[in-house]
Protein: Efflux RND transporter periplasmic adaptor subunit
Organism: Dyadobacter sediminis
Amino acid sequence: MLKSNLSLIPVMAVVLLMTSCYEPKETSEAEVPHQSYQPSRVVTYPAVIEPVTESIRLTGQIEYNPNQVVRYASLVTGTITRSSVSLGDRVAKGQVLAEMRSSELSELNAQSRVLEAQLAVAKRKLSSVKSMFEDRIASDKDLVEAESETEILKSEIEKIQANLSLYNASSEKGVFQIKAPVSGYVVEYNISEGTQVSSGDVSLFTISDLSEVWVTANVYAVDLSFVQKGMKAVIKSKAYPDDFFEGTISDISQVFDPQERVLKARIRMANKDLKLKPGLTIEAVVTRRSKELAVGIPAHALILHNNENYVLIQKPDNTLEPRKVQADVKDNDRLFFKNGIAAGEKIVINNQLLLFSEVLGQDK
């Protein structure tokens, strides 16, 4: 009997040894392995403490700077015989834009030539009278009359030349050349060869220096307390989706536009690359800063999951932590937190949805 029991001892020992090898072991959450992401794959933004901002969006459009616009209208009737430029061309002051035949200008030019010939005769007569006056052959009256005749003719010629200059035209080859009164870009051009021109018509062309333009933004009554002169504005347009332009509100009208029922806020903008074209529809983002401070991050870093908001935070060891958050203030492109995110923490701002899904997949 003793011998039988002794034979069971080695068997039991083996069973106990095998059982101990498969005994469950508790694993803490901290010991669960997490995937480390290479820094080059993750783009982050360091959360910073900054003044809380509020922004609104105003619609509007680009307009000419009226101080840099010249509209040319003819004061006489005539016919355009040649057009030298096209819409959008850059022109220099004095450059010929078109040629016109006009009976009125031709008549003025003819009068000028007749008066110049009469003036030449009057000058010779005056010279002769002066000589006779010195020899005491002519009287004071004769001298005064000769001088008066000369001055009258000079005055008439100057008057005609002033009129021709007012028309901004000069006579060459039987036609009158219409010249650019200033340098700039041809932004309106309403003439072509054969066009009949009448005095009082709409402007033949408009020239503007587009180096500076005005952005006119619409301010509705509900936004009056927000928008103020001197505020910074970021200008965006669908024509340039990847670009933005910065300006400052220089003036706000004090009278509502009767048709649109809005006040007009004016933003003067330098137009170095000529991208801001008059008539272009824009959106102006106006921002105001408060004295309150909070941790700020880009709004696009937020991740919506199961109707809750998260951000993805890169830890010092390059692991990623999904963290549920609740923003205290939401701006157009910024989120502000008083709690939940510490200054200096790295917030993932690129491919965060894909990375967030990967992290959730690891925890399952």
User: Anything to note?
Assistant: The two ends are 55 Å apart (CA to CA). The helical segments are 2-21, 103-134, 140-166, 352-362. The first strand starts at residue 44 and ends at 46.
